[in-house]
Amino acid sequence: MRIDSHQHYWTIERGDYGWITPEMPKLYRDYLPEQLAGHLSKHGIAGTIAVQAAPTVEETEYLFALADRTDSILGVVGWLDLFNPSHRNHYERYKQHPKFVGFRMMIQEMPEASKVLKQAVVGALREYAREDVPVDLLLKSDQLESLNLLLNEAPGLRGVIDHIAKPPIASGSFDRWAEQMERAAAHPNIYCKLSGLVTEADHLHWKPEQFQPYIRHVLALFGPHRVMFGSDWPVCLLAAEYDEVVDVLERAIPSAWGEQERAALYGRNAAKFYKLPAMMQLFPNK
User: Fold this and answer.
1) What is the DSSP code (8-state) at residue 205?
2) How many whole angstroms separate alpha carbon 167 and alpha carbon 171?
3) How far apart are CA 157 and CA 152, in angstroms?
4) N or C: which end of the chain has fewer CB within 10 A?
């Protein structure tokens, strides 16, 4: 039994996915639960964490509506604007929904990542850290330095780095990303999603072995109990099918990892991070 810790759904006509344009025909269409169901069944995945793909309250509410009618959506990661004092009002409303499991900071979209160090954001994250609220962290590798400064300012934050911070896999650059990820992993409440890898490589000419150094580094830094499998479907379709995403990760898992480590990677860690007690009971004990 597995959990896909990171995937998206959208309906284009809703109009708040500004980053998805007609020039991206693979993504410029609706993606809904019935299109993912076959992949989940094939890979023994019991459910998913549906993550916001637009920086709007309305999209979070749209995901809640999908979750209400879709058993495979185990949790919804919504969106909050921590620069707006109203974020707390939205959070209080979100948490009334039984499938709300946290929110995502879209650092990736900030022209200056250092904005996350503004007192309003730091103060908000300290408050959410005290309440142990799960926070997804979407960023690019060149923004890791700002993230690490933020983690020092908000100790104890329950956070997960999405897409292993998008290292420059296409160019093969490694060292700077690796050093910054080591700093992030030193914070015991920070996890890392092994997701979004294929889209950081050459979309047409990637090879599975390109990803191994990055995956192995993350597994070594965060250990078997702070990493999660995520497909990033349907964004992954820009470069790979669902089966290929699973295969990329499978090829890189150390041979020394047994049933317990694999169970953690493929679901138990996600259930723990997002506080899904009913799902925790379905995984082997440590």
Assistant:
1) T
2) 9
3) 10
4) C
Range of the domain at 256: 2-280
User: Cα-flanking dihedrals φ and ψ of residue 171, to 5°?
Assistant: -90, -15
Assess whether pLDDT exceeds 70 at residue 286. no
Is residue 74, in this structure, part of any structural domain at all? yes
Q: Say if 132 falls within a structural domain.
A: yes
d(CA 281, CA 156): 25
What is the tally of structural domains in the chain?
A: 1
The pLDDT value given to residue 1:
81
Distance CA 11, CA 15 (A): 8
Give the model's confidence band at 280: pLDDT under 50 very low, under 70 low, under 90 confident, else very high: confident
In-domain check, residue 286: no
> What is the arithmetic mean of pLDDT over 99-113?
96
From residue 136, how far is each of 15, 51, 109 by CA, in Å? 23, 9, 14
